[in-house]
Amino acid sequence: MRTSLPTSGTAWPELKAQMQQRRSGDIDWRGGRASVYVFHPGDDVLDVAHEAYGDFISENGLGPGAFPSLKQMERDVVDMALGLQNAPEGAAGTMTSGGTESIVMAMKACRDHARDNGFTGAVPEVVAPQSTHPAFDKGANLLGMRVVRVPVKDFVADVDAMARAITENTVMLVGSAPSFPYGIIDPIRALAEIARERSLWLHVDACVGGYVAPFVARAGFPVEPYDFSIDGVTSMSADLHKYGYAAKGASTVLYREKARFNYQVFRFNDWPAGSMSTPTLAGTRPGGAIAAAWAVMNYLGEEGYVERARRIVATRNKLADGVGQLGFEVFGDPQVSLLAFGGDRLDIDAIGKALYAEGWMSSRTSEPKGIHLMISPEHEQVADEYLETLARLVAASKSGQLSSEGPEIGYSS
User: Fold this and answer.
1) What tens digit of pLDDT does each residue of 316-330 get?
2) Could you please report the per-residue DSSP string of 130-151?
């Protein structure tokens, strides 16, 4: 039955109570039960983001002339992002609503740049590892492009196989830092070498890692190079609302050269209201998202991010050791904040569904079957409890007490 607009309004206290009741079945992410969708840095950071967003909830990033405050805050955020990714002078970028929009914008810029520089093929192609995020396929669907997915080797991009997949229609190569399924950084240096040799655009998808990997490195842990310090990296995507701990939705798309960024911008003047220029897919852009990102980055500073990166790595190492002792195999050598694990000797489906039934929300991998964790700073509080729960469920699975029947956990609505 369709919900109708009420005839009369309802007082806010009653509405708020209704909303709290409706969320009673939501995952307890504040209690550390979610390892996907939410990146909990601590209540103090949430309060900063919440207040900053609320202060600019009505302002519109579409109108920098009307809201120079937003223009300056976005410029500051992008400058900080470029600095973190070791971009050279002359680099440029913008904020977007999320990783998908950042990726689509980079693909659009690449396509248009290719057309202006001699590409005559019917369908521009993107060569990417099989572990690449589906946002590239969504972008290809929107932009009249095609993604050529290449099987991975040891959980990372198979550079030789990707080189063999390049044709006269190829305009872009993709590497992830890290890939979403496995949490491992692709060999970006090797991909960049191919990109330089073939005059191809290389996009590094650092949506997950862009605002945690630099601080993991600064905390003294090894991180495979992935950013603009590598000659040949053309553009990058990095999500502020993941490990930048900003309010949703906020991401950044960054370019080595402003001339490449200019291909992202949409300009139009053939209508009765004058010229219009927008740097992103969206026209109206919520001022709250820009303000919250600016506030959180300045509130935490480098020290705040490094401290949280240390907690993430410590928790990741504890979990990796713990699942190894339970008979799981950690996939590859994760260096930042993701951890995926599985094993042929255990019923991953049954264990994953049992975890979900007990209130632990995580995503899963299918090739190979595994459990996938995106670790936040606050997960350090529940790591021991998680391992104890997992140990109990492993024992139950081995004794045949668990069933793989039940709902699948996915990303569709």
Assistant:
1) 999 999 999 999 999
2) TTS-THHHHHHHHHT-EEEEE-
